[in-house]
Structure formats: structure tokens, C-alpha cells
Amino acid sequence: MTSPHLYGEDVMARGPMSLSPEAKTFNWLLESFASNTAGVVGAVAVSSDGLLMALSSIKDRANAERLAAVVSGMTSLAGGAASCYALGVLNRVIVDMSDGYLLITAISAGSVLGVIADRSANLATVAYEMTLFAQRAGAALTPMLIVELKNSIQS
User: Fold this and answer.
1) Rounded Cα–Cα distance for residues 107 and 131 (Å)
2) What is the tens place of the pLDDT at every residue in 72-104?
3) CA 24, CA 47: separation in Å to the nearest integer?
4) What are φ and ψ of residue 101, in 5° steps?
5) In the chain, where do the E strands start and end?
6) Positive/negative CA dihedral, 115, 121, 124, 125
7) CATH classification of 18-154, choosing from 1.10.287.110, 3.90.180.10, 3.30.450.30, 1.10.10.10?
8) Sign of dihedral through CA atoms 130, 70, 97, 79?
9) Which terminus of the chain has fewer CB atoms gathered within 10 Å of its CB, N or C?
10) Long-range CB contacts (< 8 A, 24+ apart) of 122-127?
């Protein structure tokens, strides 16, 4: 049995439907990013352990989980390459496909933002908005908030 303080007693006491103001703000920032950035089809926030923390504009839970797994794997591969060639920390991964893009950027503490964009997207604008999201959300992304976000997705 896991100790309650590991997950934060206040998080567990609130229950699945009642999120902290910080979690609500994080989810709002993600939804705002996805809905207000031209060309963005959907976005996920993924924790350092590869689990989905938050999703936006992706109504199908299975697709969000699949995207989180892809984003986690791509992040790991990019981190491995950066380490092997002494290239520093991950800033962004861009995968260019015939009908769209997958973009990944670091948020904080190993957490990343994964974005699916269509071909109409201006990559410079999407990358800029992803950086703004990471700066705004990353500053508040504590270990306790990460756990709360992951728990809220699972319920």
C-alpha cells in the first residue's frame, strides 16, 4: 500500500472530480494553447515516466494514450542522441509527415508537451506558442501537481 503523503493527502481527499486551482489552470492553459493556435489538432502533456497528465482537443482517450506513448518514446530517443553526442538538453523534436507534424517540447522536470498539427500550421508560430505554454505551465508543475494531473486522467 502506498503512503498517502506520497500522493498528497489533499489531492486524495478532493476526489477525482475536484481539482486544485493549479490543476485547473494547467488544464486550461493546455486547452487554450490547443484551441487558439492555428493548425494544432491536439496536444498532450506527458510526465517523465511516460504517463498521460493532461490532454486537449483529443476526445478519444485511446488516441491520447497512444500519443503519450509515442511522445515518451520520441523524447527518450532524442535524449539518448543528445547524450551520445553531447548536444545538451532536449529543446524540441519535430517530425514532418506528409499530412502534418508531431512536435515535442520540454515543459519541466522531464515532462513534455506533445502536439499534433496539420499542414496548415505555421511551425514557427506553433513552436513559439509551445515555448510560451512550457514557460507558463512549467513554473507551476510540481511533483504533487504531476501526480494530481495523472490521477485525474486515470479516473
Assistant:
1) 8
2) 999 999 999 999 999 998 899 999 999 999 999
3) 17
4) -135, 150
5) 40-46, 52-56, 92-97, 100-108, 111-118
6) negative
7) 3.30.450.30
8) positive
9) N
10) 122/38, 122/39, 123/94, 125/37, 125/38, 125/39, 126/37, 126/39, 126/40, 126/101, 127/92, 127/94, 127/103
Q: What is the CA radius of gyration of the chain?
A: 15
pLDDT bin (cut points 50, 70, 90) of residue 53 is very high
Q: What is the pTM of this model?
A: 0.86
Cα–Cα distance, 140 to 68 (Å, whole number): 21
